[in-house]
Design goal:
about 160 residues; alpha+beta; Aminopeptidase; about 20% strand
């Protein structure tokens, strides 16, 4: 195991990031297939999305690199006031993912810490995130970093 470097993603690394993002999408979909969309091929869709986001001022894509291999990523954005959600301007942490073989080594914590710094530098006064209901490990992890529960999302399917 080598040194972990957390830094901004390069365009040439977006395919590797998209593969991890697709794994994250599939994990969420497996928790609740009605709530979390799965549009195949996910890697292609995410690669296209990230290709747009990487140049947007209010978006941040970070990678964790070990021995020239991308082993994790995080994606966050700067958001303006949202009256529907009663949410003032903030940073949003959308994704954090570490490859299974690289977990339990503090990489996710480093990705989140770096994202907080990046979003703060963009002017975010707070960071908001959502975590899947069934992902207790992630919720515990985020609470250990000082995040607190503020909302509960509820979903109901409508009959056709």
């Amino acid at each position: 195991m080598g040194e972990i470097l957390v830094r901004r993603a390069k365009r040439s690394e977006l395919s590797a990031v998209a593969r991890m993002a697709a794994a994250l999408v599939r994990e969420h979909h497996s928790l609740d297939s009605q709530r979390f969309m799965l549009v195949e091929p996910v890697e292609v869709g995410y690669r296209e999305w990230l290709g747009k986001e990487i140049t947007r001022r209010g978006a941040v894509i970070l990678v964790a690199e070990e021995e020239l291999e991308i082993v994790g990523y995080s994606y966050g954005t700067l958001e303006s006031r949202n009256w529907n959600d009663l949410l003032d301007a903030c940073g949003k942490l959308h994704d954090v993912y570490v490859a299974k073989q690289s977990r339990r080594r503090g990489i996710a914590r480093r990705l989140v810490d770096a994202m907080l710094l990046e979003l703060k530098a963009l002017g975010a006064p707070r960071i908001v995130l959502m975590s899947a209901e069934g992902n207790r490990a992630a919720q515990s992890f985020f609470q250990s970093l000082g995040f607190r529960r503020t909302m509960v999302e509820m979903t109901r399917e409508l009959e056709a």
